[in-house]
Amino acid sequence: MSPVEASLQRDSRIQKWEPLVWLLAFAAPLVLPNHALLMSEMAITALFAMSLDLILGYTGIVSLGHAAFFGMGAYSAALFAKLVMPDPLVGLLVATLLATLLGGACSLTVLRGSDLTRLMVTLGVGLILLELANKLDWLTGGADGLQGVSIAPVLGLFEFDLGGKTAAWYSLAVTALLFLLMRRWVHSPFGASLKAVRDNRLRAASIGINVNRRIAIIYTMAAGVAGAAGALMAQTTGFASLDVFAFDRSADLMLMLVIGGTGWLWGGIAGAVIFKLLHTVISNLTPQYWTFWIGLFLVVLVLVGRERLMRPWTWFSKPVRTKSAEVPPVEAPATKASTSSARTEGRAT
Question: What crossing angle do the helices spanning 189-199 and 211-237 adopt, rounded to 10°?
Fold first, then answer.
């Protein structure tokens, strides 16, 4: 086994604390039944954040229109449940497939140009879909949203209750399964090639990596995961509105990755959970100024650093300077001219 394969195998191993985190997450709706809907929203948002991390953290593609795929999944699942059949699992698969197809078509727009060009292109795609959903009011409901969406019980057994327990477990189960799938992607040779593309595209191309193909594939995969998150949102709430395409949703996603960190799937989960908790707690305390406090938290996070913020006792400590060994000065070797002049002076004396 080569060192690269050994490193990939070591990184792909599930850590001992990871199953414990998922067990606590699945037990949370029972322990805190009044906050089951919030936990469902956290799971959906975490899945959405991890989908953006696939292209931002692992590939280096910046996007401000990732909500386009989220909205595509939400409207596809809601329309499928209303017009075709209300089964949630089939609707989830259909919505994920349609969002994946949309991502494959949009991947052609991010292969060329600079980061600023990609920002504008991805933002434009989201705005186009937002306007289409607004104008096609006979199908999408327009500004009023798509109402009257009823979802059948999951597996024909678990009905969506008002308390949100079924929604929470359903969202957590789908998020956990897709997390394992994405973990397999990023810790495979394909994931290693994505990191090479992120670090240096020219060098990656010089060693034989098809850069455009890698970008197109991961962009399409990330769109499918985002579409699955949107489908979960529509199925657990029974509603889809123009808000799913809003620019604010994509911007909040970037903030979550700033909080949790990029290039690490758990960073998307941590960022989504922290952001949603801050949003819920601060908006209950100050409904008008909650954005100010979240902005202040982000400023402190950037100035202090994520690692030091977790250790408050190191905020005011000065970095320890180690004494470097003093190296005696090295005299330059004497040239022929200086040597001959020294001999002449010695003879004169």
Answer: 110
